[in-house]
Amino acid sequence: MTSDTGAGGRLETADKLVPASISGDAGFLLAKLHAAGSVVNNKALEEFKLKERSYSVLALAASGLTPSQREMAGFLSLDPSQIVALVDDLEKRGLVLRSPDKQDRRARIVTATASGERLYTAATKATRQAEAEALNRLSAEEVRELKRLLRKALWSGLEG
User: What is the CA radius of gyration of the chain?
Assistant: First the structure.
């Protein structure tokens, strides 16, 4: 969408609003970047019949870290019922398995099947390309620094 700049030129409406004070708010900037990234990611994941959330669950299931559904919910900032629905869908597709946790039989560990691992590997290539597209205004070094800073803000002392 465009608007007239008044000088005979055109200016993107979104660009027109960049000087607004909210553009300096970290929460707004993070939400805006996430929204833009989600659109690009979901488009890249279409061919795998995944969306960003189901891909995230599959990524954790394929991580080798044997996460429980509750751990996934906390890590992904989703309600446990949302994780159950996502895992149900992936399980029906033969991409993940649920098994009781040996330490707590009430908890369910989610792991990727061989088919899930293959799909995850292929989908990851697509998400890496989507990430490059979403962050195309940054240099490779700036992308590494952005990720480092985000990890530090989220998990100070645990980033690796």
Answer: 19
